[in-house]
TrEMBL record:
The gene is LOC103514755. Gene3D superfamilies: Phosphorylase Kinase, domain 1, Transferase(Phosphotransferase) domain 1. The keyword Membrane does not apply. Residues 22-277 form the Protein kinase domain. The keyword rRNA-binding does not apply. Transmembrane segments: none annotated. It comes from Diaphorina citri (Asian citrus psyllid). The lineage of its organism: Eukaryota, Metazoa, Ecdysozoa, Arthropoda, Hexapoda. This is Myosin-IIIb-like. Keywords: Actin-binding, ATP-binding, Cell projection, Cytoplasm, Cytoskeleton, Nucleotide-binding, Repeat. ATP binds at K51.
Length: 277
């Protein structure tokens, strides 16, 4: 039992070997602690995403945190499903790998979506941005229930930046080198919307999210009371807006994947959800 007692939350030695169930097909992302692959479940034929983490003893804290977040939050409709954790043993203990198997999200990033729509001359209205941000804040509100090592209001800042990108097509300082932008953020005043001054609610929402003083920045549960997100909650239950997003997705799909065949059997459905209490 190589990993007995290593983790309080995961019985690593009892995990199944993934090699007979999943076939890795393509590297689609890299991070600090691992790589993410497009993979296929050979038993069902379904496509999944698999995050592979190595150096298990050295990274056990990060592994446990990743596992607990996925296990506790993947039941939320706005978060990709978590299908399980597997252990791939190597020839030596340092070659062992943990495979986090998750739902494959094929819609691309916010940047991909916005840029694709810009190329087709399509822009998002304030109502449509409210619809997107409402679902995003629900996710952050769930995250606050976990004992995280950082203040969840850091995510509120990220949400404000996302709102600007949705409205204008590019995030603030996108014309700068990433390292230069990193130094500019703490020195400059908070970013603001520059092109959509007619969107009063959206402008106010961005200003609330991008308060530089952390103590003045709202938590997600407080932000859900903002008029923009109340509008988003109402719109989330209207089938006409749901159909609008289905059309937007199909436009984006044709543009972004027009030279790819691997997405041909992947479909995304948008549906109105019941109003939260």
């Amino acid at each position: 039992m190589a990993y007995r007692g290593l983790s309080r939350h995961i019985n690593i030695d009892s995990l199944r070997d993934p090699r007979n169930k999943f076939k890795l097909q393509e590297l689609i992302g890299e991070g600090t602690y691992g790589e993410v692959y497009w993979a296929k479940d050979v038993e069902t034929g379904d496509h999944v995403a698999i995050k592979i983490m190595e150096n298990i003893p050295e990274n056990i804290e990060e592994i446990e945190e990743e596992y607990l977040v996925l296990k506790d939050l993947s039941v939320h409709p706005n978060i990709p499903s978590f299908y399980g954790l597997y252990l791939r043993r190597g020839g030596q203990p340092e070659e062992d790998q943990l495979w986090f198997v998750m739902e494959l999200c094929t819609g691309g990033s916010v940047t991909d979506l916005v840029q694709g729509m810009k190329k087709r001359g399509v822009s998002l209205s304030e109502d449509q941005i409210a619809y997107i941000l409402y679902g995003t804040v629900q996710v952050i509100a769930c995250e606050q229930q976990l004992d995280m090592s950082y203040d969840a209001r850091c995510d509120i800042w990220s949400l404000g930046i996302t709102a600007i990108e949705l409205a204008e097509g590019d995030p603030p300082l996108s014309d700068l080198h990433p390292m230069r932008a990193l130094f500019q953020i703490p020195r400059n005043p908070p970013p603001q919307l520059t092109k959509r001054f007619d969107c009063v609610l959206l402008c106010d929402f961005v200003n609330e999210c991008l308060r530089k003083d952390l103590e003045e920045r709202p938590f997600a549960k407080e932000l859900l009371r903002h008029p923009l997100l109340k509008k988003g909650a109402q719109l989330a239950h209207q089938s006409d807006l749901t159909m609008t997003f289905q059309i937007f997705y199909e436009q984006y799909r044709m543009l972004y994947f027009e030279h790819s065949t691997r997405f041909n059997d992947v479909k995304v459905e948008f549906s109105a959800q019941t109003e939260p209490t």
